[in-house]
């Protein structure tokens, strides 16, 4: 399908997407996205089979609600949006976005799909709040979250170390009723 509206699309990951996702996450030599997406988290390299099994185990938040979607632009896999329950009892959902292809950064695609992702999560779950966790060096993520109506809720000073330097750990979030107000204001 030709994307004539110049928007990125969110789609369920197919087998080919899963292979591409694994490549960008573990095999791609430059790992530019990792410089911004949780560079303070040491990730153990796993095999594709382990990756695939892990994906399938956490594929759904609920029976028919996907926890991860592919970001596509003109049928090209760019990255993923993800989510997981931080605390199911308090209905606290965490989410994220990674665009692996850096030639697609700074084009507004991340802001567009992140808003769609938040909307999907509020529609398809009983989440009371949706949040993100990042670090103060990731200005783009904080801007995307802010453009999506999220506010900074916590700043843990010098809570992250990236390449030997200290950065603040940042928590941003939005409540269900705030999202409804944000959508109403944004659509005018």
TrEMBL record:
It comes from the Bacteria. InterPro entries: Acyl_CoA_acyltransferase, GNAT_dom. Pfam families: Acetyltransf_3. Signal peptide: none annotated. Residues 9-150 form the N-acetyltransferase domain. GO terms for molecular function: acyltransferase activity, transferring groups other than amino-acyl groups. Gene3D superfamilies: 3.40.630.30. PANTHER family: N-ACETYLTRANSFERASE DOMAIN-CONTAINING PROTEIN, SPERMIDINE N(1)-ACETYLTRANSFERASE. This is Acetyltransferase. It comes from Staphylococcus ureilyticus (Staphylococcus cohnii subsp. urealyticus). The lineage of its organism: Bacteria, Bacillati, Bacillota, Bacilli, Bacillales.
